[in-house]
Amino acid sequence: METKKDILWRSYLIYIMMLVLGVCIFAKAFYIQNAEGAYWRSLSDSLHLEYREMDAERGTIYSEDGRMLSSSIPFFDIYLDFGAQGIQEKNGERFKQHIDSIAYHLSTIISEKSALEYKRELMDVYNRQDRYHLLTRNIDFNQYQSLRSIAFIKKNKNKNGFIFIEKEKRLAPFGLLANRTIGLSREYQDAAGNIVTKNVGLEKTYDSLLKGITGKRLVRRIAGGAFVPVEGSEIEPENGKDIVTTIDVNIQDIAEQALLKIMTENECTNGTCIVMEVKTGKIKAIANLGRQSDGSYAEDMNYAITRSEPGSTFKLITMLSALNDQYITLSNHINIEGGKWEYSGRTVWDSERHQHTDVTYQQAFELSSNVGMAKLAVNYYGRNPSKFISHLEKLQLHKPTGIDLIGESNPSIPRPGSKFWSNVSLPWMGFGYSIAISPMQTLMIYNAVANKGKMVKPYLVNTIMKDGAIIKSFEPVVLNDSICSQRTLDQLKICLEGVVTAGTAKSLYDPNFPIAGKTGTAQVANGNKGYTEHIYQSSFAGYFPADAPKYSCIVVIKNKPFAPRYYGAQIAGPVFRTIANKLYTIDRDLYKYYKHPLLIDTARKTTKGNPSDHKMIAQKFAPNKKETRLQYLSNQISSGTMPDLNGYGLKDALEILENQEVQVIAYGKGKVISQSIPAGTALQKGQTVYLNLGIKTERP
After folding, report:
1. Cα–Cα dist 300/95, whole Å
2. Mean pLDDT of the chain
3. Most buried residue, 89, 204, 228, 428, by CB count within 10 Å?
4. Angle at Cα 257 formed by Cα 251 and Cα 258, nearest 5°?
5. Statement: residue 536 has pLDDT above 90
6. Best CA proximity match to 116, nearest among 103, 105, 125
């Protein structure tokens, strides 16, 4: 009996304990649901909902005339949520009614599969109730617009199950044109799986303006770990601002093609070419080419802002210093000793051996004598080299130009007393060695000479715009109102013009369109191999037209080892000359300064024109028809090609060119004797053609 009571007592106790536990659980559940419900529901949402960043549309980079150089193009990935209300309502009846139409439009717009294949895919995924099915990737904006106009999607907005994920790709409409300067905006995945954006050039310098302000989108996690957007939860991003550069697409193309031609012919290692507007400092073109492993060329580095020993183009600074300090005049004489001079246990050589000894300083400069410039530096600055260094500082060569490109090299200038200074530093600096500056810095000096002594800062951006409105403009910045006296400036111009007319660059001389500049040939060390491989850097810096400069330009090219041609006048000079010649054919300001020879009236000499008109005139007015000698030439002109108009009257020439849809500007009277665009050249609609007629008249 006692045993039975003991068992019953224990059973009651267990029952009571379980009852109490149940009441506690119920009470706790009630408390959690009512008192802490909001907290736990928000915690649950936080596990399934999260905010994802939405990138803003990146701004566009334009050329000076409004052509796109770099722009973002939207692309879309399409997903289908088969749990969406618009698909599931009425047990999917609405979706099944439209599936044939949807499949047809998908096959028509996307064109990846047939309508039947799309229908099978949609039904299969519908039966599986897939909540995040990838339909396709990277459709363009036109395809996106077409899909949004499908009746099922249009009528069931926000619940049709179609999810469009917008992305963007950065495209350069002009391909590799100025690619390194404009910059790259590319995404890649690093080792940790993170998406990293890499920018260079203007894309990097102005990244904070171009990228805009990031937005946010609420997404919900569904089965399979996928996330789908929650409609109506977006915090819209603020699109990036646009940038209008100083780049002229036509000049850029001319510079790149001229540089590429020479570098390809001579298998050069790398090279750069910069064209600057003299008065403003605007960079109109900047080409950078490096030879790739397969022998092709690409814009792989910005050599224009990378320092190197400038070589003989630096001799302009040496002459400027001595002339401005009034130590010499151009007519003073110096012994250049046949191109060889022993100094402090080292030998200074001219690039070419010669027999010249007693020459003027002007002749030494025109001959590009290293001996002459080294002696000049030692003779007048040997006791006080800091005075020579002070000239470099006045010319802003001790610091980068400050052009709006991240990555510009710091110059290297040895100073007396430093570990980089030696007994031969000064004479070697006199002809462009033992010092390292960028081509952009060298051009800035030559541009100042062309600009009547006023040094302006080079720059690449004209304006920053938002929604088509200018929010910031950039104006020319004057760094130095006068780099030297007017007397020195006049003498420097004489020297630079003399290099082309009688010196190392006389092969580039054209009396009708004179240029001014200086050649440079510097031997370059190749790491541990030193100078044994005979690698040379060829350069030419100057401006044009010589008597009324509008553009300054520098060309710097590094040649391959043991190159058969490497002198500045052979490699860099022709690039400069080609750019100058082509610009004068398209720039009216330059064409005005082309020095056409005086010509006689050609009005009486009929050589070309409409044959029927000539015959009519000959038959009516010729006193003796047997003696009439007229040259009848074909009037058939190839469309889109510049004809040879030599000998045509202005009326006939205008009729022909107007049919080609180009603009015509003519100078003089009589018959055409020259034209700005050579015959056979492809014409572009709206292009300007200049015609010179037989009698010279005063031009505007």
Report:
1. 53
2. 83
3. 428
4. 90
5. yes
6. 103
Q: Tell me if the bond preceding 545 is cis, omega within 30° of 0.
A: yes
Task: Measure the CA–CA gap between 545 and 580, rounded to whole angstroms.
Answer: 8
Where are the domains positioned within the chain? 51-245, 250-591, 611-695
Q: Which residue has the tokens 């569904």?
A: 222
Reading phi first (left if > 0) and then psi (alpha if -120 to 50, else beta), residue 696 is in: beta
Q: Which amino acid makes up residue 608? A: K
- Please give the pLDDT value at position 19: 80
CA atoms of 345 and 363, how far apart (whole Å): 27
**What is the spatial distance between Cα 445 and Cα 447, in angstroms, rounded to a whole number?**
5
Count CB atoms within 10 A of the CB of residue 204: 17
Give me the residues paired with residue 540 across strands.
519, 555
- Check whether 698 has a pLDDT greater than 50: no
pLDDT band at 214; cut points 50, 70, 90: confident
- Sign of the alpha-carbon torsion through 67, 675, 588, 545: positive
| Cα separation, 284 vs 324, whole angstroms | 31
Topology classification of domain 611-695: Trypsin Inhibitor V; Chain A (3.30.10)
Strand 688-695 and strand 663-667: the pairing is parallel
DSSP string, 4-19: HHHHHHHHHHHHHHHH
Question: pTM of the prediction?
Answer: 0.73
Angle 21-27-33 (CA atoms, 0-180°, nearest 5)? 135
Three-state SS for 264? helix
Helices (H), 587-639: 588-591, 611-621
Give the C-alpha separation, 313 to 163, whole Å: 61
pLDDT-above-70 percentage for the chain: 81
Distance, in Å, from the CA atom of 57 to the CA atom of 300, rounded to the nearest integer, reads 26
> Which tokens hold the place of 497?
């013009």
Using alpha carbons only, give the angle 456, 458, 461 rounded to the nearest 5 degrees: 125
107 near 188, Cβ under 8 Å?
no
The phi and psi torsions of 556 (rounded to 5 degrees) equal: -130, 125
Residue whose structure tokens are 């022998």: 295
Length of the chain: 700
Token output for 396: 């802003």
CATH architecture of structural domain 250-591 = 3-Layer(aba) Sandwich (3.40)
Tell the burial category of 206 from Cβ atoms under 10 Å away from its Cβ (0-12, 13-18, 19+).
buried
- Our CA angle for 65, 67, 73, nearest 5°, is 155
- The two tokens of residue 251 are 């000049």
Q: 45 is written with which tokens?
A: 């949402």
The SS3 assignment for 169 reads: strand
Q: Which fold has domain 51-245?
A: Penicillin-binding protein 2a (Domain 2) (3.90.1310)
In this structure, the number of other CB atoms found within 10 A of the CB of residue 250 comes to 18
Structure token pair of residue 666:
């003519």
Residue 283 φ/ψ, nearest 5 degrees: -85, 110
